[in-house]
Each structure stands twice: as structure tokens, then as C-alpha cells.
Amino acid sequence: MVREITPNDIWILLEGLKWTILLSAIAFAGGGVVGLVVALLRTSPSKVLRTISYLYIELFQGTPLLMQLFVIYYGVALVGLDVNAWVAAAIGLTAHASAFLGEIWRGGIEAVPRGQTEAACALGLSYRHRMLDIVLPQAFRISLPATVGFLVGLIKGTSLVAIVGFTELTRAGQIISNNTFQPLIVFGLVGAMYFALCWPLSVLSDRLEKRMSMGA
Question: 183-196 burial, b for 16+ CB within 10 Å, e for fewer?
């Protein structure tokens, strides 16, 4: 039976939006930390470390996020571990984000002119100071447009965590749609909320990319 959408339904959507934002923030922050490690390993002088980080990136970039979430949530039970939906979603999205951010930042590191690294070596700077003081600040600036663009995709990717029972914005929309039998209106509202989150970030990414192309 079709019923009207009530303020309580809107509140449920806003609660779902809150969890979408929180989950995206955790995955982006965690993925940033791990992604930095991955990027450093990818540019390491050690062939073993480069190979390990390459395989890590290929694993998470070469398999669907939906499958990764499914394996983390249901697969760990096979080894006697019990994780709830929140933990599984956070771990899955963090691992996914780290692989993509690691590759984005690896590209930024390699885009820094080699002459600057050679000059730092000539001055006797250690690897740590070369990376922290010279390479990474420039690499992050170069990679900023792509990093912001990836955040947009990550926010939309949170819609897949419903497979592990986590209720974010899309799942909240499904619940309300099933109760009201008004999917067009409900998912119109859901789409508008995603747009309100992602559009400003997309505009920011475009502007950063244009500034970078002009050398600003």
C-alpha cells in the first residue's frame, strides 16, 4: 500500500547520510595513511618492496569492491574471527582506498623532477629528509586534483556496503522505498543528497586540475 513520505522517513535518510559521510571520512583517512606507505614502497629502491606493493595494488584495483567487502565480512568467519558490519565496511573501504591513493601518490612522487632529488643527495640529505622536505610536499600538490576526484568515487562506493548489512544512505533509501512504495521519490531524494556531497568536490577537483595545468 502506497503511503506518504513522512518527516520520520526524511530523518532516516539523514541518518543514512551521516553514516555515509562518516564511513567515507574513515576510509579516506585510513586509506591515506596506508596509501602513503604503499606509495613509498612503490618508489623504494628495493625490488622486493616494489613487487609487494605492486601486487597489493593489483589485488585491490583488479577485483570489484563488492567482492572485497563480501570476502572481508564473510571470509574471516572461516578462520574463526567475528567482525560486525561497521568494522567490515571500514576495513574494506580503507583497503580499497589505500590501493588507489597509493598509486595516485606514486605517480605524484615520480612526477617530481629527478634533478631535485639528485641535488638533495648531493647536499647529503638523508632519505627521510629528502622525502619529507622536498619530494612529498610537491608530490601531494601534483596529486591533489586526482586525490579529490577519487574521494568523490569513494563516497559513491559506500553504497555497496549494504551487502554486509551496513545501513548508509542507499540502504536507508531501500528501506523507505519498501515501506512507502514510492521508489522514484525516495531515490530522487537519495540522489539529491549524493549530488550535494559530490558536486562541490567534483568542482573543486576540476578547478585544482585547471590551476595545475596553468602552473599556478
Answer: eeebbebbeebbee
